[in-house]
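Progress report, Aim 2. The chain analyzed during this reporting quarter is listed below.
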Amino acid sequence: MCGLSGEIRYDGGRPDLAAVERMTDRLAPRGPDGRGLWSQGPVALGHRRLKIIDLSERGAQPMTDSENGLTGVFNGCVYNYRELRDELRGLGHRFTSTSDTEVILKAYRHWGTDFVDHLVGMFAIVIVESDTGRVILVRDRLGIKPLYLAQSPGRLRFASTLPALLAAGGVDTSLDPVALHQYLSWQSTVPAPRTVLTGVRKLPPATVRVVEPDGTHRDHLYWQPSYTRRAEYAGMDARDWRDAVLRALRTAVRRRMVADVPVGVLLSGGLDSSLIVALLAEEGQNGLATFSVGFDSEGGEEGDEFPWSDLVARRYATDHHQLMVPSDRVSTALDGAVAAMSEPMTSHDVVAFHLLSERVAKEVSVVQSGQGADEVFAGYRWYPAMAEAAREEEPRRYAEVYFDRPHAELARIVRPGVLPGHDVSGAFVEDHMAAPGAQTALDAALRLDTHVMLVDDPVKRVDNMAMDWGLEARVPFLDHELVELAAACPPELKLAHGGKGVLKEAGRTVLPRDVVDRPKGYFPVPAIRRMAGPVLTRVKEAMSAPEARSRGIYREDFVAALLSRPDDHRTHRGQNALWQVALLEMWLQTHGIR
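Predicted structure tokens for the chain:
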């Protein structure tokens, strides 16, 4: 829920309150239910509220705990806040609200920066200590909730979205060459702390940053699961693992029903979202609202999976809603989706999530989503090839399988001097995979996908598109305890049955076999994948705009070749190459970056 913003001055000056107000107002879609500002000394905070827990004004933010000298803003949800509140009461703390925000402040006062170890949920948190001037910045373990940073001499600004920082002004909007290399190499993934803009960074997941009054800071990585076969799981057979995964997922789904408003489910009819619905039905959820989206077919490619979602909805008697989107609606919705992006995102389903979120937000303000299961449980078709690699060969194999194009090919795409002269994307993968804590080649690949790619592509995409309509998306497959369990699970159990084997076995205990064993589906948006007329027209406008010509990122002959045959050029992973290069330019233009 919500969006946060703020500014810290450590040069003796006062924060620019007008800039904090502009940031806060830019976050209005994320928090349509309330607005708050706070300032004291060198720090100012802003907040936009989406009311999910404690709907009264006692839950408003920024929230000040005068007794303990703390003020904080918070985006997300702490699912175990009730249990923590009871524990803290037993330790002598007093509460004036039923909000999870107040629990966060009391937990910080009691445990210091170790308070994050007690939180179960998704969150970006900023806490100000009035007596010391120290500021604490926190991001959740899997990076589900974002926190963007813009540093300049004597000042640090932060916000839940990158466009909010742009609204404040004073941001270096030049392109980061390393980030651009990663964008063109790795499905638009730009790992933290970078963004495509030189002047904006993001706090990495599972990080506590302590900022001192003089501007110095220290970071603490507070969580990283081990991708090894751990002793506590020794002796478990396939059935034991199936049961353990089902128990952990059931707990994760139950946790994410915590709210003072109704919670729905985004239901595609695939294994992951269907499991969520089935487990909620087991919990006794009646009249559960479920939502599916489909698109017109293009070029012989089907645009919906309604037969599967209908099957699950009937089986569990949900209150099911279908949204059918005609192709011309995709093109008209495209600019709104790009405007909602904190960073350029090239996945074809980005517009689908934006349109679906618009519809769902009219019915509920919280949904559960199946995001993350494929990365956590090895569901993609390329994982078996990675598992065959020797440990030392895995970085090369990963790049061959996953990257859009090799480093050498970038010279034919981008003008000279725009990118670094060496393969920075490949080097990032090599360094990440070489870190201790991954036992096999597949373990190293899954760790990279779960803690880097997933964070800065699919999870970010869902957060941005949903929150642009004031819709909170919760992801039970990224429950940190479930991720820890999956990380320790033997690779062969995850790879079984064509991928996600252990999850499929769990699914067979609660779902119709047709749903578990159906061919894997994707969120199809044929109008973008096939570069249908109106979308192509919009792309051509962006690539021929004066801003694109003056920016000069791409070689003219490369762009001309793409535009002459827009549906023939594909990246190594099958993405439309024109869409990838044009989306970056569209994003820059939409956000006023010249």
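The chain is about 40% helix and 15% strand. The chain has a mean pLDDT of 93. These observations will guide the mutagenesis work planned for the next reporting period.
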